Amino acid sequence: MSYTERRRGHGYGGNIRRAKHVQAKRSAWAKHIDSKLKAPKARSVDEWLSAPNRFDLPNVDTNKKYQ
Length: 67
What we know:
This protein is mainly α.
């Protein structure tokens, strides 16, 4: 992935701070349910932001780092 793609929000380099803010604003119940489900890894921050309950984003709503 090129530097330009990362700057446009593609990949995990794009606006991770915003994703963490959105995660912090989610209800305790939503976070609890999300932690119990195994969701597919989001391809980008934007994809996760579009549906945080359907995707996992490393270091935002999961405790593991994806390889």
